[in-house]
Automatic annotation (TrEMBL):
Signal peptide: none annotated. Residues 4-121 form the Response regulatory domain. The keyword Transcription applies. It comes from Streptomyces griseocarneus. Pfam families: GerE, Response_reg. It comes from the Bacteria. SMART domains: HTH_LUXR, REC. This is Response regulator transcription factor. Residues 146-211 form the HTH luxR-type domain.
């Protein structure tokens, strides 16, 4: 089955460019488009896309609030890939905190766009560039540090989280730690549960904001 995608951007040329790039791939199908975040929820309910490629800044409802609405309302929500112009944009960071699953620059090469979408759709690795890692670390606070302490990760879970912050997939973590992939999946699930994180992105944000890891 192809990966189905909903494109959301207020610029028709951006949507047309993304559609051309994605539909050239045999495993990706663009099933809908929207020019504003206000149209996302009804389209998600009707089309049930695997991934929403979401602009952040839109005139009526921005991508941050549209992400919150979808995740709050839809029982099995799609993955959300933030597509924007500036990599150090605080709006992007806020979208990731709201629950978006990854991040992509509009100026990325076609191969990078395709790979980013496949990565987000698979859900077992992370798109979280260096500029956003630094921004997350700068948002450090006592609440995040206290939450990390309460999580009481085991040494192995801590190892897994450190590798998650480097964007590694489960198979890559398994090879690094000489573990089975299913064992790694169990550790990732435990980390998410202990941190109260919806997904890997939220766990990595918690790791940086708490000082568990630092950009480097």
């Amino acid at each position: 089955m192809p990966i189905t995608v909903l494109l959301v951007d207020d610029e028709p040329l951006v949507r047309a460019g993304l559609r051309a790039i994605l539909e050239a791939q045999p495993d990706i199908e663009v099933t809908g488009e929207a020019s504003d975040g206000a149209a996302v929820l009804p389209l998600v309910r009707r089309l049930r896309p695997d991934v929403v490629a979401m602009d952040v800044r839109m005139p009526l409802l921005d991508g941050i609030e549209a992400t919150r609405v979808v995740l709050r309302t839809v029982t099995e929500p799609p993955k959300i890939l933030v597509v924007t112009t500036f990599e150090n944009d605080e709006y992007v960071y806020d979208a990731l905190r709201a629950g978006a699953d990854g991040f992509l620059l509009k100026r990325a090469a076609p191969a990078e766009i395709v790979q980013a979408l496949r990565t987000v759709a698979a859900g077992d690795s992370l798109l979280f560039p260096a500029a956003l890692r630094r921004l997350a670390a700068s948002r450090g606070n006592e609440r995040a540090r206290a939450a990390m302490e309460r999580a009481a990760l085991t040494p192995r879970e801590a190892d897994v989280l450190r590798l998650m912050t480097r964007g590694m997939s489960n198979p890559e973590i398994a090879r690094s730690l000489l573990l089975g992939t299913e064992t790694v999946k169990s550790h990732v699930s435990a980390v998410l549960a202990k941190l109260g994180a919806r997904d890997r992105t939220q766990a990595v944000i918690a790791a940086y904001e708490s000082g568990f890891v630092t950009p480097g």
